[in-house]
Design brief:
The chain is mainly α and 166 residues long. 65% of the residues lie in helices and 4% in strands.
């Protein structure tokens, strides 16, 4: 997707495998690019699962409203039908604050299919990865400064599992 090039400073080398590129991004001066790459390169359902686990690792930072939204997301990851997707979308769209969990809820809403039950338009492919990227990076930004490098490393390690499966 061309959106990755707009959001990342580094590009993959010719013939570089996805996991190798992810690890190179992790070691770069902008390791946050590894989060963006994982968000865009994994299938939406897998990337949402990964982001859900990242947010869960930072669970102490979740408000009660975010915890309720995370339950909707967890249900959708187990039962990814349109009814659960639209239920999660509604919860995210009407949330009073755009928190990391809300961005992840929007990613579920935009993970594929119709944009709404009464709208036949399909969701653009870049919307879910952008929301996933926003969820994980905003979660990271809310961490205490001393914890950010540790959490980022954990998020990237967890993201690497998306590439090892192939």
């Amino acid at each position: 997707m061309p959106q990755v090039a707009q959001l990342c400073q580094n590009s993959p080398r010719d013939g570089e495998a996805g996991l190798d590129f992810l690890l190179r991004l992790r070691a770069s001066t902008t390791p946050e690019d590894a989060v963006t790459y994982a968000a865009f390169m994994a299938l939406p359902k897998m990337a949402i699962w990964w982001a859900y686990e990242c947010l869960r690792l930072a669970g102490d930072d979740l408000s009660p409203a975010d915890r309720a939204l995370m339950e909707h997301i967890a249900v959708w990851t187990t039962y990814p039908d349109d009814a659960n997707r639209f239920r999660t979308a509604q919860a995210a769209l009407y949330a009073p604050v755009r928190s990391p969990a809300v961005f992840l809820g929007l990613a579920v809403a935009w993970s594929g299919g119709q944009i709404a039950p009464n709208d036949p338009a399909l969701v653009p492919l870049h919307r879910a990865p952008r929301a996933i990227n926003s969820a994980v990076l905003s979660c990271l930004s809310q961490s205490e400064l001393a914890q950010r490098p540790i959490r980022l490393a954990r998020f990237i390690d967890l993201g690497a599992t998306l590439f090892r499966a192939f």
